[in-house]
Every structure is written in structure tokens, then in C-alpha cells.
Amino acid sequence: MAKHHVTTTINGEEAEYLCEPQETLLDVLRDEVGLTGTKEGCSSGDCGACSVMLDGRLVCSCLVLGVEAQGKTVETIEGMADGEELHPLQQKFLEEAALQCGFCTPGVLIAAKALLDTNNNPTETEVRYWLAGNLCRCTGYDKIVRAVMDTAADMRGA
Amino acid sequence: MNEQPKQFKWVGTRTIRPDGVDKVTGRAMYGADLTLPGMLEGKVVRSPHAHAKIISIDTSKAAAMDGVKAVVTAADMPLADPTPVASGEAMINLRDLSDNVIAREKVLYEGQTVAAVAATSADIAERAAALIEVEYEVLPHVIDVLEAMKDDAPVLHDYMFTGGIKPKPEKASNVANRVEFSLGDIEAGFAAADVVIEKNFTTEPVHQGYIEPHAVVADMGPDGKVDVFCSSQGHFMVRAFVAGLLKIDMSKIKVTAAEIGGGFGGKTTVYLEPLAVMLSRKAGRPVRMVMSRDEVFRASGPTSGAALTIKMGATKDGRITAGDATLYFQAGAWPGSPVGPAAMTAFAPYDLENVKVVGFDVVSNRQKVVAYRAPGAPISEYGVESIMDELASELGIDPLEFRAMNGAKEGTQAAYGVKFGTIGMQETIAAAQATEHYKIPLGPNQGRGVATGFWFNIGGESCAGIRINEDGSVSLTEGSPDIGGSRASMAIMAAETLGIDVNKVKPSVVDTDATGYAFVTGGSRVTFATGMAVVDASKAAIDEMRARAAMIWDVDVDGVVWEDGHAKPASTNVGDFEPMSLAELAKVANKTGGPISGHADINAKGAGPGFGTHICDVEVDPDTGFVTVLRYTAIQDVGRAIHPSYVEGQLQGGAAQGIGWALNEEYIYDADGKLENPGFLDYRVPVASDLPMIDAILVEVPNPTHPFGVRGVGEVPIIPPLAAVNNAVAAATGVRFNALPLSPPAILAGLADKE
Questions:
Q1: Residue of B80, B45, B40 whose CA lies nearest to B277
Q2: Would the CB atoms of A97 and B657 count as touching at under 8 Å?
Q3: What is the fold, at CATH topology level, of the domain defined by A88-157?
């Protein structure tokens, strides 16, 4: 099967890869580009572990084909920190223990950042509904929701 | 008994976990994240039938496909000895385990592995798997536990005769085993009761629901050495099972524990690991295998569904006189349900004189159950705690007060054999009574439920090594896969013992060649048992540093004490020496005898039993039957919280899983015995918008056998929610439900019956 040549921007850098037509963006990120921070939990868009930003929109990368990233920008968990400087959400998740096994964490962080980028003062209900597509089986969500709200408060105060 | 200092520098603080940055930046390596040069991808062929005889398997078309490097069937696996070995918290028969890894003569559930393929890409492996032709003779199947016990039920194993019954039955059946625990005289107990309530209950099988699917990379060289990298709750367990199934010396197998994306008991056995080793051996290349979510639901987990009969009696003044329970547990296709611990825990929260519990372990055509957080206890205690609520209501006693009146305390004799030592059952009830939550007024269609829970907690084998590096930093190695922050607590316990900054300690979970044996991460044992090993190893390093200081000062070692990270003269009689810090001793180690380390290889005893009390408020929509959890408080005696945030996290996460069990989660089969909901869309675990904040209240009644007072905490929190939710729904609706899950259709049916 002929592979497709795709040129895209990943975490601010131009990237190229070859992918088969049926490969998902998730497959491509993990297996072709080597960015394994984006996780596969279900491959059906139900768990959110593979959340990435595609042209500024929050998507499940398992529901996007690799070829669809042609000419677009992709942001993954690997691009969230600025060098050694963690994003305030990453820092708050550590301080407030908003992760246990950590497997859902990359997807949760990407989704939470997408929320705070558009709404810097979300209510608890807004956070809960925004993150309803990101399954976490360890935490019961309590510390995740608090960490997102506390980050928002810090960022508003900054 | 250890002396427990009251003041701690690190214990009880909320440090940043050592593996945290890796996990928020995507750098952490989970089971599916490793790629090796030349690595192949493996896929599995699974049975489409619930019960069938395998007539033939033709792999020739698959093997001939371009890119296919190996195909394996049961013919490639040695016939295992039917010898029971430890698997998580249960014993398993290696022959049964072998059949579950790859079917030999019969398939016993839909989704059971019959063959596996390794190819140069996942896509090729999948297409090759589809070319493997398996001829089956379909047999009648049975799914339900009570159906499976009937005389005319299809029998899964013609060699299985019910154990625990004398004389041995004459006919093979699906009942693998009968267990019984009793105390006193229940007939007399019920005769003394003013109120007796007896009810039947059912629960459905529920999956552990870890978000990371099972994943492994295996690499076997021509010299017979095997490297395995996998997501598991015990890499020594993986080593033992791979060695046992494939008849390879353990010394030739090195297993590295990947970061684990959740387990909850479900990763205390092997599925893919032996297959990946078999494929790698055939292909001469590394092989990666990763389950799809569909495969996770069909072929791994869950815990048992069950049918229960619970009978309890009490006097008018609120004293429980007897408890009687009969438990029928689905084991899946081979024996080994958690009916034993379910029977042992059923009435354990209470100080009862007359108890009888009988349990049956029943096979049926479902995947083999595996441990799920406090295996069995949520099920039996759900029944007992639901009856407790009804008794309290009949007697007009507050349900928490009723539990306090009958609750276990130090010296209580439990029906399963032990006499409790220092426990915090009563303290959790008192803490629940003191909450604001318990006093908040409720509105229409709202109800409040409470329940308690008990779990043994275990100790077991753990090893730890402390190495004092030349610069005074400390490398800590141990072998318990870190499922929820245990490295943070290990670092805290080492720093506290050594008297140094916690950031000077780097804890690592190292491979099976690099540390001594550790039993699985399960039974709420890691912070207790591995923590004890870490403290012992730290103390051994301290003794070595005291000896080094004694050598430098030319005094007897007994004249040197260790305080606040320094060797000091024990008194002015010893001499006037400047205290030497750990870093100073490390710096001169090469002049005082060489590297400094401490090790501990232990089998930890004295795990402290755990008790929890939960309060749940719900609102039931009378039009839709939908249950909303309004408020939730989880209270638990944790002994001592080493890292309170991660302890709270255990309470919150366990409560959420229990709420899912109570309200949403169940396996649904069609008439052919095929699973109908093998995905997160139709098997609905709680999502963020389903839950309120979960208040976690830590009660600390220190465990006297642990140097810092630790009790295991991970399992208790999943026990009370089932009954707490059930009791809250009863309070909201006036209907006592006796089947989980309390899904909207079930609630509507119950409300209709009431009218």
C-alpha cells in the first residue's frame, strides 16, 4: 500500500511523515513521529486519553486520520511545557496530586488547557462537563477538577 | 512493636511525587510506549463462541503472508502442571492459566485466545490473524451463576467435582468449591431476635476499567535469555508465570515494570506476556502486543457477578443477634472467584456472636475473573450493609448509631478467625457522625445512605535497597510497581528515617534482575510492606554509617547514635566529636571501607485491618429513574497517611469506582453468550460530570506493627459505596432495591411496583 507524505506542524515545528491511508493521527504520532505521550485507551473516541489540539480545536487523535493533519498544526502534551518551565496546569496537577497512574493525564491536561484558553473562570460544573470526555479511573475526578479551577484562579490573579 | 515518634519532618507532608514531571509531560514510559529495533507487532485470534470444542486450527495461509514472522497456537506451549501458584491475592492452577493464555482443546468463553501472529506491522498481523481458520464444534453454554448450578446445566469441566463437600460428589458440576465460616450458634441467635430480615441480592460482573490496555514488549534471544517490558502489578509475578508456563528458568527472564496505567487488581495475572515471548522465540525478534479496548473487556478482568442471600436478626434495643449469608459467585471459566474473601469479610465490621457464611465458587462461560480492589468484599458487604440499613430503620435507630452499637473494636472475634488488634472502625463512625454532611437537610426525592466496609489488608514479601551515593544523595531501589504514587511515600519514609531532605532520595522500581522478590502490588500492601522494607534498609544503612563514624572517631559503635541525619557521640563520655552528616560520611566512604548501603529482604507481617464509613446523598428523578449523586463523604482509618494527598486520592477513586458499580456498570450478554457492551460507550464508567466532589476524611489510628503506623488504604474505599448508594436510593424513593446496577430502567421498574 502506497504511503502518503504529510507535511504538518507539530508543537510549533514543521514535521514530515509517511503514513498509510488508514493510520490514525494517534498511530502516526506514536509510531511514526515517536511522540508517545499521547495515549491510546480505546480507539473509539470514548476515553479522551489521545486528546490533542488540531488547528486549535480539541480532538481525539484516534478519530482523525494521519493524512488529515496535512498543512495543519498539531499540539500534543510534549509541547505543553516551555522548556524546563511547566505550564501552570502541569505544575498544579503535581502540587495537588491530580493524577495517580498518570495514563489519562496527558489527555486531561490538553483538554483542560483548551478550556482555560477560552474560559479563564469556569465553574465546577463547566469543568466537569468539559472534561466529561476524558475518563479517569483512579482519582474520582475530585483533585483534577480542583486543580483546573485553582490553576484558573492563579492565572486570573497573575 | 515499634515506637512511633509523634513529630515527623516528612511523613504526612504533601511532597511532589518523584515520577510526577514525567507523567505531566508525556515522558513516562507505559507498556505500549517502548519500541525496539526490528520490533514486530503481535495480534491475537479469539474465539467467537462462548463454549466450543476446537476441531482444528489451520495457520498456513497466515504463515504464508508477506510480513508475517511467527504464528503460535497451544501446540507451541508446553503442557502445564496443574499445580496451584499464587496469583495476586488468590491461588491459580497453571494448567488453567495456560488454557486462558491460549486455548488447547476447548474454548470456554467468547474472546478466549486460540492463536497469535507476529508481523512487521499491526495491520499485517491483524489481516494475518483473520486468515487463521479454526474449526469449532459449538457446545451449549451457560452464563448465569444460578443457571450454571442447575442439574441440567452444560458442564464446563468434566473433571471438576465440588471441593469442600464430604463425601466427594459423584457427578462433575460447575460448582468448583464450597467454603464456610461460622461462629457461635445462628439458630439460637435468630431465636433471640425481635426483628429478622432476609433478602436475596444480585450484583453484575464489573470490569476494573483501567484506562491503559494490557501491553507488553518481549524479546527472546537465541541464547534463551528473555527480556519482558510490560504493564503489570507485579513484574516478579510475570516472571514466575512466564517461567512456569514456558518452562524457562527464572534466572533467564528479566522483567521490567513499565509505568502502569491503572490496574485495580486486573493486572495481577498474565494474558499477553507468554504469547509475546513465544512469538519472539519463533521470530527471533522483539514482539510488542497491545490489547484493544474491545479485547480488554472481552478477555481480561472483571470481578464476579453474584447472587446472595443475607439474613440478620436484632433485638429491639439494637443488638444484632445473628448473621447468616449464602454467596454464589461467578468464577468465569475456571475456578477462583473471590468468594472466600467475600465470605470472610461479610460480617467482619461487626462484633457478632453468631455468624454463618457459606460460599460457592461457580464456573460459567465467561472470562476468568481476576482481582478487583478488595476482591469479593464489596459484593458480600453490599448485601449485609443493605440489611443493616433496613434493620436500623425497622428498629427506629439512626443507621450510624446502629453500626456504632454493633461495630467491631479491639478484641472483637471475627467469624473468619482473627481477633482484632488496634482498629479504627468506631473512630470512622464517630467521624461520620461529626460531619457537616450528615446534618445537611434533604429535599424532595432526595435520600441519604451510609455504609461501612472492612478489608484485611496484607503484608508479604518486599525488598528494598538504599545506596548512599558519594555526594550524599540516596538511590532507593525496590520492586513494587507504582500504581498510584507509592514512590512518593517510599522517598518520604526513607528521608524520614535517614533524617535527610526528601529531594535527596530518588526512588526507583527496578527490574527483576536488580532487586529481590516482591509480591504483587495488591492487597493494599505496598506502602505498608515495601515501606517497611525501605525503613529497614534505611536503618541498615544508618548502622553502617554509625560504624564508619565509630571507625573515624576510634570509638565503639555503641557510642555512636544517628540523629537528624548525623552520626553523633551518644554522650559526652564517648568523646567530644563534631557530628558527621550523611553527606560527610559519604564523602569519605572510600577511606572507611568503601560504598555504603543498606538492604532489607522481608516478609512483612502485621498488616493493620482497614475500616471505612461512607455517606452518600442522592436525588432520584421519578420520571426518568436517573440517580444523581449530590454529595459524597468517604471516611477511613488509614493508620498513618504518609502522603495525605495520595491517600485521599485512594478514598476518592475507590468511592467513584464503587458508585459506578452501584449505578451504571454491568456486563451484558446476548443469547449466544457473547458480550454486547465491550466498550466505554456502552460499559459506562463514571465520567467527571456524573460525580460531585468526594470529601475524603482521614482518620489515623496507627497500626502498631508498622514503624510509621501505616495501614493499607487502597481497597477499603470501594466497599461501602454499593450499599451507601443503595441505602440512599431507598431513602429517596421508599423502595428497597436488591439488584445492582441501579440503572434508570431498574429504578423505574421499582417505582412502578411500589405504585
A1: B40
A2: no
A3: DNA polymerase; domain 1 (1.10.150)
